[in-house]
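During the second year of the project, the team shifted from modelling isolated chains to modelling whole assemblies. The rationale, set out in the original proposal, was that interfaces cannot be judged from single-chain predictions alone. As a representative example for this report, we include one of the complexes processed in the last quarter. Its constituent sequences, exactly as entered into the pipeline, are reproduced here:
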Amino acid sequence: MKRFIILILLVVSFSTTFAQQNAPVEMADTFRSSGKIYVVIATIAIIFIGLAIYLFSIDRRLKKIEKEK
Amino acid sequence: MKFIYQTWWKVIAVILVFSTLITGLLFPVPTLPILHETIRNLYFHVPMWMGMLSVFVISVFYSIKYLNTGKEEYDLVVVECVNTGLFFFALGLITGMMWAKFTWGEFWSGDPKQNSAAIAFLLYCAYIVLRNSMDEEQKRAKISAIYNVFAFPVMIVLIFILPRLTDSLHPGNGGNPAFGKYDLDNGMRIAFYPAMLGWSLMAVWIASVRYRIRLIENKRNNIN
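Output from the structure prediction step:
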């Protein structure tokens, strides 16, 4: 009986270490499922579009100056 | 050179980068320990180096062209390409340090990749110093063009070859697997490749705008 209990204990302890090995890697799943990630994307998109428009306007101004020459 | 005055490729650059802002944040990524969600930095940190590389390649091309023909405009292309390349170099270093803080534990851990990238940065700063230290235009252009031709392979060796030969924490070095191993089956390529191309074109665009400004400045200086 004693041997049997020890065996069961060992099996149980093995299963816990095994479970630890397979612990899920933490990802920002709640951030995604709650839809808040779209706020971040919108912010970045606005900044980038602003920068792109700014670059295009610099380009256009430069073209005007080049034509004057 | 007509290419830099056209608009179509600038629109493509903006569309490509814009698409990666959305796909890069929304598309699934492999779940890896330590990295977690920071693996998405791959779409923004690595393209900085790609942008740097593409303008540096153009600068070497025009250095050789300058040495062949002696045309002053080619020298101006080289300078502005190196300036833009240094800007992207700095962005790559800073974003790399940020990423390192949260994955390697330290902003600067003296990793071979970080150290040799810093040395390569100084190498290109030396180009700027060398060029500005001379007043005579032709001599300045010739010497800095020769320096640039030699600086490029040294930079490549420092950043992309030497860290691979030793132990480095950076992926793709010292026996560490590169990210290429993971993105094969994970659709990361859909966001990664457009980012590489898009940011390269952005770098070329910025360099071309700077070159056109310098061309006008140069003309004005010659007339006066």
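Chain B has seven helices and no strands. Chain B touches chain A at residues 5, 7, 10, 14, 17-18, 21-22, 25-26, 31-33, 36-37, 205-206, 209, 212-213, 216, 219 (CB under 8 Å).
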